[in-house]
Write a structure and sequence with these properties.
Elements lengths: L26 E2 L7 E2 L7 H23 L10 H33 L10 E7 L5 E13 L2 E9 L10 H4 L5 H39 L5 H23 L1
Antiparallel strand pairs: 1-2, 3-4, 4-5
Length: about 240
């Protein structure tokens, strides 16, 4: 029979999810011997007194152990959460580079253009607490605040279940050069969304496994935040060593 996971100290920040406490004095339960210490025989008040004394000490130890928080049960999945957090961060960096590149090229292409040929589509990246993120297209608008113009997201577009936005409707009325730019960038965004969805499937499977093994509440947000904290700690330690 597979051994139950042991308590391991030196965890990377997972909250205490407990587990069965270490067994005290081993006992054998059989006919006429319920609770009988293994390797001993019943017989005489001295042995009964020793058993009572042993039980009292065991209760004291158990009460002391319950007074202290138990270390979390380590299931072996922690390094995978760290890998997932690192990969999601790499994808986020790639997506942010494409977002910045889009805005730079849109700004450059708008120079010298008439208002109707400047384009109205904007894109943004929104991070989530689970380590994932979304890449969203929207229609830009302008409002005046204290006499100054400010850009706003006047209309957001729905992507649906596909990895790629329905560009035909989005690009209706946009100048050709903007339509070509959006099509090029959105193709790269769709690939990033696909990879992120695969990583999320792995994350959710690990969370489901940990819920089963730990026997308690455990969320994707808790797992990924702990993993990101581990990455930050390692980065600070590396900077300290290199200083």
């Amino acid at each position: 029979m597979e051994a139950a996971p042991k308590h391991v100290k030196g965890n990377i920040g997972w909250q205490g999810y407990g587990g069965s406490q270490p067994l005290g004095n081993a006992t054998a339960n059989g006919r006429g011997g319920a609770g009988k210490p293994i390797g001993t025989e019943w017989g005489g008040s001295n042995q009964i007194g020793q058993l009572d004394n042993s039980m009292s000490k065991s209760n004291i130890v158990q009460n002391h152990e319950r007074a202290e928080p138990e270390p979390p049960v380590m299931t072996g999945t922690e390094p995978t959460y760290v890998w997932l957090a690192e990969r999601l961060d790499q994808l986020r960096t790639e997506a942010q580079f494409l977002v910045n590149d889009y805005w730079a090229r849109l700004k450059a292409g708008r120079e010298g253009q008439k208002p109707h040929a400047r384009g109205s589509l904007g894109v943004r990246l929104k991070p989530r607490e689970t380590g994932a993120f979304s890449i969203e297209w929207y229609e830009m608008g302008v409002i005046r605040v204290h006499g100054q113009q400010r850009s706003i997201a006047r209309k957001t577009y729905a992507r649906g279940r596909s990895y790629e936005y329905p560009l035909k409707k989005m690009l209706n009325g946009e100048p050709e050069w903007v339509a070509n730019l959006v099509t090029e960038v959105e193709k790269a965004f769709a690939e990033i969304r696909k990879q992120m969805a695969l990583l999320i499937n792995i994350r959710d499977a690990l969370v489901a496994y940990d819920k089963e093994v730990r026997g308690t509440r455990f969320t994707a947000m808790e797992a990924m935040q702990a993993a990101m904290q581990c990455i930050s700690t390692k980065a600070r330690e590396a900077e300290t060593e290199g200083a």
